[in-house]
Amino acid sequence: MTMLVVAAVVVSTASPAVAQRDRAAVPGLYPSVGAGTNFLNHAELLGDMPEPAWYEANIPFVDLPDREIRDTYYYRWRTYREALKNTGPKDGWIVSEFLGPVGYSAPNGGIVAAAGHHVYEGRWLRDHRYLDDYVDYWLRGSGSGPKPATDFLNKNTTDWAHQYSFWAADAVAARAAVDGRQSFATDRLPELVRQWQRWSPQFNADLGLYWQTPVWDAMEYTASSYQSPDPYHGGDGFRPTLNAYQYGDARAIAQLFRARGDVTSARQYEQAADALQRNQERWLWDDAAKFYKHVMRDDNPGRTKLADREAIGFVPWYFHMAPAANSAAWAQLTDPQGFAATYGPTTAERRSPYFMREALNGCCRWNGPSWPYATSQTLTALANLLIDYPSQPYVDRDDYLSVLRGYALTQRKDGRPYVAEAHHPDENRWLYDGKGHSEDYNHSTFNDNVLSGLLGIRPQLGNTVSIAPLAPASWTHFAVENVPYHGHNLTVLWDRDGTRYGKGAGLRVWLDGRLTHTQPNLAAVRLTIPSRASAELPSVVDDFANVSQTGFPTARASFSYSADPPTKAIDGQDFHLDVPGTRWTSYGSPNAADWLEVDLGAPAPISDLRVTFYDDGGGVRVPTAFDLQYRGTDGVWRDVPGQQRTPAVPVARQVNRVLVQPALTTDRVRILPRRADGGAVGITAFSSVRPEVPGLTASLPDLAVRAGAAVEVSTTVTAQRAMRGVRASLAVPAGWNAVPLSSATAAQLAPGRSLVTRWRVTAPAGLALGERAPVRVLATASSAAGVSSAVASAQSVFDPADYATVLWDDTFDTDRLGSYRVDGPFGEASPSLRVGDGVLTASASSRSGAVLAAPVAGSARGTAVVVEPRSFAGSAPEDSLFLGQTAGNRDFALAWFNNAGKASGVDVTVGGVRRGDEATGGCCATLTWAPGDRLAVVLQDGRLTSWQQHDGRWSLLRSAPIGSVVDPAVVAQWAPALGLRLDAGSLVVDRFTVWGRSGQ
């Protein structure tokens, strides 16, 4: 057996033939546009946009006689580009809503509320990998994972993809209608069906409709909310939103089943959609008011509809759910007492007594302000009405242009394109626009409304495209060039007299640069498109990306400006705003030059480095030159060999690419940018892009380890196609050892077959409790270029055997309650406490809480506090245990375990001041307790870690750096404690034990 040298730098020694193959396989920086037209001046249209080559490769270019709409179109592509966030190898790309992090997002910053908008908008990009990853994030990845069922994160649902309402299947099918990659959508039918079915807890069988809490429709403080006891959340109700989303998803699922040839399953979802449509007409359509309305779920036996019209009443047309007979609802769009506004539409009709109530007092009220989220929904719905429904007398294409133009004018600040959270409907100002939070808010569509509405590019799943422009007859011209459609480039020109573009008069259509259709007017037309799905682009990952800016990979620098830490250079985002920022700079450095280092934690292949330099035109400028170095096994930094740079000289605001040929493997890389004048430099993005082996995947489970001990783990490398010369290796951090216990090679793998290798992994003796380190499996094949990989977390876990000194053990066989100090940090009455029958019982009929401090001090080396619950009370929202150490009501560090909310977190108070994330480590972990599980807290080395034991295995819940706010030596003298808090019923505990850490 051979042992992998874990921090080794391995320089490729491939044969010339293999090296040449690797060079040929290097993926392009951007997708190829292919054959198309070149009628428009793209550089002029883009202006001073950063990284113009990205837009040239990805977006359809438009020319419009309305400059405000045109300029907003290109601005909104910039905001979408900013919102693309690379989360790393596991989930890849997501589309963010806010450019900076918020506390209620899913892992890595996803927020499902606007995910449908994100997919509709991004479906027009040529690079399909962004939405491939993003869709899978919500359906298969971290975004589909469990979340705490807390009030803060939606107590009604238990996974992130259902935190907010979401039209998932409809959006996925709409995306497939543009790129033609129908198999991507049909392959995800099991997940789309699961997503649809998981709304069933909010389905009312009596009405045949879904209910939703307005705030989880992404709409707090609505007109309907103000008519409930809880204006923030709003009264739970049957709403046109979620029911329309479920209708649209059922129709899309049925369409995808039919595309796959499964007629039986398709009919099932068509019937479900039909039933939803019938029930919505019965319960939510107000025939007197001619509008869809909210119906309160509770205390409303007659199912009375609210009097107020809200913009959500237009949503059924978004999904073609509303019948043509209901078109009178659209009269409200242009009614001055309805939704009409200069910067509208409004989110509630002006007739409502709740219109703009408290809206000027602070974010966020959706009872009147102009909200891009709702405006874009309304415009999509209006386009459907005007193009796909019979003609009606209420609205026309001029109204569409008027609303779209008003929407464009809304997106302004100081005379420049800008979008924030919500706008005053009648005044030229944003109402909700928090600095460092609301800038370039990505919570809506605009470009999809231009392309599919104004310009009438109506995508189809089949081999056709409909072109039905809503541009007014008064327009003399418009153009949309090189739309990536079903693997082709589609160009549409309207030139009334042929003088604008010089290509002839009338409407003309080109496919892949070839003129295929002409007509003299703007009448709708359906054209056949030769069958060709978009080309599959090679799969690549960024091994440097770390959105959370915690753990590995991590970044360090020789100097950093206070607002520009090094971790922001690898946060997966690349934009050039001042606030919020996503950059490292050396502004203010006393050094002649500085370096930025990326520590991967465990070795990885380095072959394609990409850096984008920040240049503010003032104190931070593009470097004159830069060096790249890697760390060897001897700890010495050396220049990266075999560099091929494009461009040769550093440039600002676009990608500087360095191909490393042959590739090397290392755990640390650093860049040393320098200016000839010694001034400051900055980097907005630093990436290590790795092409994966097509059709070869790797996996390994997370490892639970103990300091200085060995564990076994198996890696799995699976082929989706025939592979030759498959090899697996296991890369672990410096100071760790990994030894293969079975073969790590396979001469060949047939499709569906796997190479499984067992490894013995040994952690170093100094590993801290709860510490995580990356372990990376690397997989290659001689028959294909690239390296497939997977990263697991090796974590030092709690083992009671390491805490052999018993400091306190209460089995409640005898009554020792008098030995405890009873604290009241919650400011509530104490529950009734009773010891008997070998258990401690806390009982209450209303909110009560107490903390029992044991009559001992903790251990200076480390204290483990363990509780064995017998049963929780079943009350809500409080049904909680607390564990940790306390010196009274003003000083304590306690982990909480809330059974009602299925969540766990940490509370730290020092000197009567409650401390935040700097001491608690952030919000919450998911907690699912079962009888027989134990809960524990360990306070050691300035950290509080909380644990759950299930089926004999301990799992980390939270890790809190309490040493940042209180001296660990002080905490060690506090009393170990058990807290109990409940709203009603009885909370029962079998045992409360405190151990001190053993050993030296």
Structure notes:
The protein has about 1000 residues and is an alpha+beta fold. Helix content is about 20%, strand content about 30%. It is built from 17 helices and 55 strands. Helix 13 (about 370-390) runs antiparallel to helix 14. The longest helix is centred in the first third of the chain and has 21 residues, at about 265-285. The protein is globular, with a radius of gyration of 30 Å. The two termini are about 35 Å apart. Residues about 1-25 have low confidence and may be disordered.
Question: TL;DR?
Answer:
By secondary structure, this protein is an alpha+beta fold.
Structural class designation: alpha+beta
**Strand content range:** 25-35%
Q: How many E-type strands?
A: 55
Major β-sheet profile: 10 strands, antiparallel
Number of helix segments? Answer: 17
Estimate percent helicity: 10-25%
- The poorly predicted ranges are 1-24
Radius of gyration of CA atoms, rounded to a whole number: 30 Å
Mean pLDDT: 95
Distance between the termini: 34 Å
Report the principal-axis shape: globular
Descriptive tags:
single chain; 55 strands; 17 helices; 1000 residues
